[in-house]
Design a protein that fits this description.
1 helix; single chain; 4% helix; globular; seven-stranded mixed β-sheet; mainly beta; 47% strand
């Protein structure tokens, strides 16, 4: 059974940093492209950042470009999202999701969250003073 478990969320002041982790079990991450998505109260789910199987392709939403960095450690079946210079508008539940297959360009995948195969339950990030 495939499981994705997010961790690392919490309360942080504006300008602070958090690192989210997504640990996978029941699956070998090499065969999956991974994305981080978020959903704020009253808003639609949106793609934040995605990474291809081989790390050759990454995508960042304009709102996080230059502040967030996605990475993956296939040997440990874990994907990370380093979030720096956090803003109140980054407050949301953050989900990691996996899409099976060899995805070479992840932009489209990141923009179409409903196409992902597996989802974690999410971790809450609150940016507030």
């Amino acid at each position: 059974q495939v499981q994705l478990v997010e961790s690392g969320g919490g309360l942080v002041q504006p300008g602070g940093s958090l690192r989210l982790s997504c640990a996978a079990s029941g699956v070998t991450l090499d065969y999956y492209a991974i994305g981080w998505f978020r959903q704020a109260p009253g808003k639609e789910r949106e793609g934040v950042s995605c990474i291809s199987n081989s790390e050759s392709s990454t995508y960042y939403a304009d709102s996080v470009k230059g502040r967030f960095t996605i990475s993956r450690d296939n040997a440990n079946n874990t994907v990370y999202l380093q979030m720096n210079s956090l803003k109140p508008e980054d407050t949301a539940v953050y989900y990691c999701a996996a899409r099976r297959g060899w995805i070479t360009t992840v932009q489209t995948m990141c923009l179409m969250w409903y196409g992902m195969d597996y989802w974690g339950k999410g971790t809450l990030v609150t940016v507030s003073s």
